[in-house]
Amino acid sequence: MKTATLLIPLLPLASFIITGLLGKRYFGVKSHYLSVAAVAVSWLLSLYLIIQVERGEELHWTVYSWIAAGSFKVEIGFLVDQLTAVMLLVVSTVGFMVHVYSIGYMKGDGGYYRFFAYLNLFMFSMFMLILGNNFLMLYIFWEAVGLCSYLLISFWYTKQSAANAGTKAFLVNRVGDFGFGLGIMLIFVTVGTLSYQGVFGSVNLIGSGTLTAICLLLFMGAIGKSAQFPLHVWLPDAMEGPTPVSSLIHAATMVNAGVYMVARANPLFAGSHTAMFVVALVGTFTAIFAASIGLVQNDIKKVLAYSTISQLGYMFAALGVGAWAAGMFHLVAHGFFKGLLFLCSGSVIHALGGEQDMRKMGGLKGKIKITYWTFVIGALAISGFPGLAGFWSKDSILAGAFNSGYWYFWATGIIAAFMTAFYMFRLIFMTFHGKPRDEQAFAHAHESPWSMTGPLIVLAIPSVLIGLALGLPPEDGHIDRFLEPVFEAVKGEVHAFGALDIGLMIFSALIGLAGIGLAWLFYVKRTDLPEKVGARAGILYRLVLNKYWIDEIYFALFINPVRALGRGLWRWVDAGMIDGFANGSAKFFRGVGVVIRPAQSGKVQAYLFSMFLGLLALMAAYFILTL
Amino acid sequence: MYEFQSQIGFPILTLLTFLPAVGGLAILFMRGKPRLYKSLTLAVTGVNFLLSLVLIAYFDRYSAEMQFVEKAPWISSLGISYHMAVDGISVLLIMLTALLSLIIVPASWNYIKDREMQFFAAFLFLETGMIGVFCARDLFLFYVFWEIMLIPMYFIIGVWGGPRRIYAAIKFFLFTFAGSLLMLIAIVAIAYLARANQYATPVFDMDLLEKATFSYSVQIFAFLAFFIAFAVKVPMWPLHTWLPDAHVEAPTAGSVILAGVMLKVGGYGMLRLCIPLFPDAVVAIAPYILVLSLIAIVYGALVSLVQKDLKKLVAYSSVSHMGFVTAGIFALNVIGIEGGIMVMFSHGLLTGALFLMVGFMYERLHTREIADMGGLAGPFPVMAGFLLFFTLASLGLPGLSGFVGEFLSLMGLFTYNKAMAAVASIGIILAAAYLLWMFQRVMFTGLRDDKWYKFPDFSLREMASLLPLGFLAIWAGVYPNTFLQLIQPSATRITEKIAPYLADHGGAIERLFASLGGLF
Fold it and tell me: Which pLDDT does position A314 carry in this prediction?
């Protein structure tokens, strides 16, 4: 088990180093061989680990002492338990599929080797993030996946928008990490260790105020990484990156890190009612907030991006109301179907030669059949169509919210679910149905190669089945029982599944169907309606269309003032005050020099005389001092 | 009379210190033979670097004692002796000095057109001064090396610098010299005060001075005098304005040494003299110094953000990074002190590398204006890779050297005062802002000028000068214990000196920040 655990991250790391150094010169169009092979093996080893955990094994292994400074000691070590296994399943599977997909998608790109090297580096970092056994490792690889995200968002660096998006992503995440870092320090100062085991073992020793502070600071990091309001602004821009990246990093894996963090730190969060409420509140608000923006986006990837933000909100809502397993369940299901949806959108973009604007699509249903059907499966799954993955996972979240007594979280979740179904099928109908709006692009459209459609089909399978496999019966499915040891400390009273639950389930299924129906009405049946409604909604429509002007607000409130402050300090304080003072005193001494210049007359007798005076003065001083 | 106790059979510290000066003298007789004197410089700095590795190898890293002690009487009537010895902090900084001194030789191989011989000689004398400062255990000797260091640097900026070199050199000299004078007064004062009734002569020996006790008011004044001298070097806000000018005008090699070593001399002095000699004063004044450090961190970062000249940007970033050094040191606990030292080490590597890169870029582009660059990753992919690496390391990406120091420094500060650590953490956000924004404007987006495709990417010589720095940056990031072990006993010893005085601190600023910390 140790060897497998070690190899899972190290294989992609080795491949990153080799491909990164030698790829350009020696590998060229074959750069993916090593890269894909490494991830494939990591995937197999992950499955092996999951089976081991399923059999009841765990791994706690300290590899080496990383930092030891005074009383501050941190190790590099691994922890493999049920939670790790669940994360491994998503990360390795989607990661492997995205690697395969990229062979087709990135074909012919000038930076082909670079792309695969970065992807490998990401896999290494993400694996280490979920395998680590302490908070500092979480932080390190949290930043490392952020780096990979940065590199891959600005992959096409000659585009100004891509370069901006990369920098923005890194910076917004740093704002979140500001809190995360302080949270870690507070943990250390409070309990004197950073290992999960040590910290969770001493939860009882932490004062309640400190515990809330720790949780909120940590959660600030999660808000950044998982793109929750108000730090969600980087994720839509991150769509500048190649689509496989959006699928892997910005939908299925990295953005889940925040959810993973809260789930991992469940003994801490569960101890603070305030923190839990904040998590639920931020999650629920983000769920509906992002969904509302998704309603009016015209860029196919942007719709999916806002959808991701919204779905991550659901996960936090689940954790916040104490439905821990439901949150993780949705993470898994979402990882598969959102990964699938992004890859499908990539296939559409590929088919249309790079077009992302849905207003220029339409009627593609018959031309790219595999993409269409897998896309529909993904859309149904996320819309909560009965039986599919999202139905079970979303329903267990909503049920959790309802049963925990937060009816307003439940109601918000229901409205967001309605919006989700609507915008997803708006996307499907605009893209695949109706008449082609751009004849030329339509004429050239073609189905993607097998390397791309293969992963679509593979990922469609769990999108359909994983709910049935893991989530039945609701709230007591396989995943609930599997994760039980992880959430042992926070287990609430067992909730009996009853008639009310079935009623809620039917209700939320109907809500999803209603959303699909409305989308059909708007974008298939009466295509004149959207414009009319938009005109009627007036300010409300402009509000969502402009994403609530959050970016503009940030520029006005933070970015521009900070730059102005920097400029002001440089011009006025540095050049004006400090140098002004220094140069002023230089001038003063020059003035003094003019006055005393006659002293340096060059006449020896004058010098002798002043030396004599000086000697007298010194003697006088000595005499007085020794009195 | 001359005695030395050493783990190896020869006086390695004297050798390390004076070999460069001997080489520098020899060079002065090689007029007109550029290949010869360049090779000799390379050989001398190379041997010195190997010697520094020998020093580390034989250094007993589990001992807090001063090691490789060499003693000889010098001006006995005044109690001045030639006393050299090192601890873990010195050893680490000596290695850094020797490495950077070696690296700048190939980097300046074709760079200097005028008075080349004197240029290389100046660097060798400079190396003697720097290493001497890190070895000296006698205050007078320390001061001598301190001044030896100042003079070659003054000429390096003033003779081989850019268009405003005279202004920059004089500014550098005046700021530094004003500090030196204060220090000299303080040195003489405490040497005489320590004599008291115990000794026959004034006391310059640091071993003896550490045992002496000074009255509180003497401590305050002497501390401030030393502190200002060192703060100019660091440089701490508001004594930093000589730095951007000096850096912009200095030749590449000068900037590398200035940022890589000379700034560290300031931090080193604080650790070596300010804290052990005046522990009572330190505890009282530390909160104010921490406030200055916080200002430096945030202020330096904000000003970096708006720089248009690449070299000036790196220079101002030094003000911010060195703020973490003083913040860590004056948190007055082992974690913070080790963090401060690690930031010094890491900053030496990374800023050294960044200045080298700016120099290499200037040799091709003949500009340092960020606005003239853009899209350089196209014609210069290797350059882009190196710049990305050092940029990321500099903004504190975990796994590279910058992170370890900054995190420990913050951790130490957090232990001391939570609100202060929160303010300092803003610097980490801002560091990412100014560095990534710089990188984006230099390397990303469209290429300004297609002619740059005609210029070659980094040569082997250029890569060879950057690779050792990158290698050490990774080492210190992945396995920092190698370096932390080296400094741990010394850091612990320093904190033990302050420990008795720590109980009764709590000035106005302390209380202010403590109440802010209550928000957590």
Answer: 92
Flag whether residue B437 sits within 8 Å of chain A, measured between CB atoms.
yes
pLDDT band with cut points at 50, 70 and 90 for residue A615:
low
Q: Which of A24, A163, A569 sits opposite B299 (nearest CB)?
A: A569
Find the CB nearest B422 among A182, A189, A577. Answer: A182
**Rama region for A110: left / alpha / beta (φ>0; ψ in -120 to 50; rest):** alpha
Question: How many residues are listed for chain A in this entry?
Answer: 627
Q: Give per-residue pLDDT as tens, B334-352.
A: 999 999 999 999 999 999 9
β partners of residue B361: none
Q: Structure tokens of B419?
A: 């609100």
- Please indicate whether, in this complex, the C-beta atoms of B520 and A140 are within 8 angstroms of each other: no
pLDDT at A616: 65
Closest-CA distance of chain A to residue B48, Å = 29
Residues of A in contact with B445 (CB under 8 A): 157-160, 163
Residues of B in Cβ contact (< 8 Å) with A589: none
The answer for residues whose C-beta is within 8 angstroms of residue A176's C-beta and 6 or more apart is: A220, A221, A222, A223, A224, A225, A231
CA dist A597 and A591 (Å) reads: 10
* Cβ neighbours, 10 Å, residue A28: 10
Task: Give A-chain residues touching B425 at CB under 8 angstroms.
Answer: 178, 181-182
CA distance B500 to B496: 8
pLDDT in tens, B419-452: 999 999 999 999 999 999 999 999 888 787 778 8
Burial of A7 (0-12, 13-18, 19+ CB in 10 A): middle
pLDDT in tens, A560-573: 888 888 888 888 88
3-state secondary structure of B4: strand
Picking from B430, B436, B491, the nearest residue to A170 by CB comes out as B436
Beta carbons of B234 and B274 less than 8 angstroms apart = no
CA B477 to chain centre: 19
With CB atoms and an 8 Å threshold, state whether B484 touches A144.
no
AA letter at A104: G
- A611 phi/psi in degrees, rounded to 5: -60, -40
CB B314 within 8 A of CB B354: yes
Q: Do B241 and A166 touch (CB under 8 A)?
A: no
Which one of A128, A135, A157, A184 makes the best mutation probe of the B interface by having the most chain B beta carbons within 10 Å? A157
Domain boundaries, chain B: 278-513
**Residues A333, A387: contact at Cβ < 8 Å?**
no
Strand order in the sheet with B80-86: B3-4, B67-75, B80-86
Neighbours of A397 (CB within 10 A): 28
Helix runs in A71-225, H state only: 82-105, 112-131, 135-153, 160-191, 196-201, 208-225
- B27 close to B117: Cβ distance less than 8 angstroms: yes
Q: From the list A147, A167, A189, which residue is nearest B437 (CB)?
A: A167
d(CA B247, CA B312): 7
d(CA A119, CA A141): 14
ipTM greater than 0.95, yes or no? no
Closest CA to B333 of B159, B505, B513, B451: B505
B297 vs A: CB within 8 A? no
pTM of the model: 0.90
Decide if pLDDT at B245 tops 70: yes
Within B30-163, strands assigned E span 67-75, 80-86
Which residue on chain B is closest to A559 by alpha carbon?
A: B433
Confidence of residue A492 (pLDDT cuts 50, 70, 90): low
User: Residue A436 and residue A444: Cα distance in Å, rounded?
Assistant: 12
Q: Which residues, 6 or more positions from A277, have their beta carbon under 8 angstroms from its beta carbon?
A: A320
